[in-house]
Design goal:
mainly alpha, 1 helix, rod-shaped
Amino acid sequence: MKRIDPLLVSFDHIEIQRAWTIGTWQASLIGV
């Protein structure tokens, strides 16, 4: 089993969190 790099995982989590936040903000702004 390949070892997962914690730094890479945390970076991906930040990217996902940012994309989710932006998507939610845009959705609320549009009113969907």
